[in-house]
Design brief:
With 491 residues, the protein is an alpha/beta fold. 44% of the residues lie in helices and 11% in strands. It has helices spanning 12-16, 25-39, 54-63, 78-83, 111-120, 146-149, 155-161, 175-178, 194-198, 201-205, 232-235, 241-246, 259-269, 284-299, 312-332, 341-346, 349-352, 359-364, 366-386, 392-399, 412-419, 425-428, 440-456, 477-490, and strands spanning 68-71, 92-96, 126-130, 135-139, 151-153, 171-173, 182-187, 222-228, 249-252, 279-280, 336-337, 460-463, 467-470. The strands form five sheets. Strands 4-7-8-1-9 form a five-stranded parallel β-sheet. A two-stranded antiparallel sheet has the order 2-3. A two-stranded antiparallel sheet has the order 5-6.
Length: 491
């Protein structure tokens, strides 16, 4: 099979016939971005909810040829966004064949390439680098060293090639030089030790690095991009002020602003289209409850705002909800799995680990807080479907002594039969767009959603032993006064 770069110039002389120079990385990004903007092409496909906020600021940073930082809480697609910057690079770019730092053949900066071009001239061999290989990323950790980032002396290399250890050819290049003529991303920048951050000063301002005290100038051609979490400024480390001053643009990311944006992200990322023997059908109201759960958690005073609630929460919860529905269908011997509200409660393990609680939340416990958030989310979604709907007939069934305990593993047909005993219940599922011809699993899930919604609004009650039942009757104020008077008279 022919290599994609076949047919491109293979020597410096052949390359000179097609062009006389190469743009810098930042100019290349700028030119390609302008071209995309003029053609109205999508810039960052798959990035949802940033079209009017973050993306315009990233565009401005690239047009300004700035190094920039994305600052935001966890789970806000920061890393995904900086990785997509490679789509703004040329599909192929030439470099001196065999060069560790992908040197520009028209203007080499490393000693070996300078020597090669001097000796071979137009016969200097040229290789081609694809845009996907022009992105280098490093997760900042406290143990990262200057040698990792910039480079160090390599005595073994010196001995192998027979060079003096002080010669530039004996240097082992670090990540920064190896990212030359590309994009270098550092995730979680505050976790990088202060002295290593100092080592980035020159490359960001003067565009060069020095290795182990050598008077070796490497004017690297790079776009530097960073990500950081605001809580890291106080929790684990900080970005030192001189480095912040050298970063051209600081861009704030955010969680989805609307439920619709959250739903689009979760649908895009969650593994729901499964290749299995069981057909999986997730109702819209279940998706909405899962998404509302994340929104409610972000607003809840018991959840730590500084830590945030990642968009990974609804993604993981929806996957877990679908799996519990699959498990139930397998046990019941059915070929259709339809998630129900009870499956969201079963997904507690994918919720509690993603919530950092404040003191009040810790006192209640993660499970209790998560259950209350599910109930709150269910109530809000229920209102969006049934606001103003007369559901008194269903409530009266329980007030008259009716009870219903649903067996999670019961076949859907049996569940529908039990739910049909409640007046008006199955008829009200039409508000969810259901007809009488819908499969039993779909109808059972819809009817249970209505009951869970009434429970969320405290119109009926539910417990583990009895199931759904009437809400405990509240005493009238006059009755309370009589009880207090009787108690005083007794004393």
């Amino acid at each position: 099979m022919q290599h994609p770069s076949a047919g491109l110039p293979g020597t410096l002389g052949a390359l000179r016939k097609t062009r006389s120079s190469l743009p810098t990385v930042k100019d290349e990004l700028r030119e390609n971005l302008i071209s995309k903007l003029k053609k109205k092409e999508p810039l960052f496909p798959g990035i949802v909810g940033y079209e009017e906020t973050v993306v315009p600021q990233v565009v401005n940073a690239v047009l300004s040829r700035h190094n920039f930082i994305l600052l935001g809480l966890r789970g806000q697609a920061k890393t995904r966004l900086i990785r997509m910057l490679v789509t703004l690079l040329d599909e192929w770019t030439p470099y001196v064949a065999g060069c560790e730092i992908r040197d520009n053949p028209f203007d080499p900066i490393c000693g070996a390439c300078k020597k090669l071009v001097r000796e071979h001239g137009d016969a200097t061999p040229i290789a081609w680098l694809s845009r996907d290989h022009r992105y280098v990323e490093k997760l900042a950790t406290p143990d990262v060293t200057i040698a990792d980032m910039i480079g160090d002396i390599d005595p073994i290399k010196a001995a192998r090639i027979g060079q003096n250890i002080s010669d530039e050819l004996t240097v082992h290049y670090g990540l920064l030089p190896r990212a030359n003529r590309g994009i270098f991303g550092i995730n979680e920048l505050p976790d990088l030790a202060g002295k290593i951050q100092v080592g980035l000063f020159n490359i960001m301002q003067e565009g060069d690095v020095q290795i182990k005290g050598y008077p070796v100038r490497l004017p690297l051609d790079l776009l530097l991009v960073f990500t950081a979490n605001p809580e890291d400024y106080t929790a684990r480390g900080k970005i030192i002020t001189p480095l912040k001053d050298r970063i051209g643009s600081e861009i704030r990311t955010h969680y989805p602003i609307t439920i619709e944006q959250g739903l689009a992200i979760t649908e895009q990322e969650a593994w729901i289209a499964r290749d299995a023997q069981i057909d999986l059908r997730v109702p819209d109201y279940i998706r909405e409850i899962v998404e509302q759960l994340a929104f409610s958690a972000r607003d809840d005073k018991r959840v730590d705002k500084r830590s945030g609630v990642s968009q990974r929460l609804p993604i993981s919860v929806l996957e877990n909800v679908a799996s519990n529905a699959e498990r139930r269908s397998m046990i019941a011997g059915e070929d259709l799995a339809v998630p129900r509200v009870l499956d969201i409660y079963a997904a507690l393990p994918s919720i509690t680990g993603k919530l950092e609680l404040e003191y009040e939340g810790e006192l209640k416990g993660g499970d209790t807080v998560a259950r209350e958030l599910i109930r709150l989310a269910t109530g809000k979604v229920f209102t969006s479907y049934f606001d103003g709907e007369n559901l008194n007939g269903i409530v009266r069934f329980f007030e008259n002594g009716g009870q219903l305990k649903l067996d999670e593993t019961a076949p859907s047909e049996k569940m529908v039969a039990e739910l049909s005993a409640i007046p008006d219940l199955m008829e009200k599922t039409a508000k969810l767009g259901l007809g009488v011809s819908e499969p039993d699993a779909v109808r059972a899930a819809a009817a249970e959603f209505i009951l869970e919604g009434l429970y969320a609004h405290r119109r009926i009650s539910r417990n583990e032993e009895v199931g759904f039942m009437a809400e405990a009757r509240k005493r009238e104020p006059a009755e309370d006064d009589r009880r207090k008077a009787a108690k005083r008279n007794f004393q």
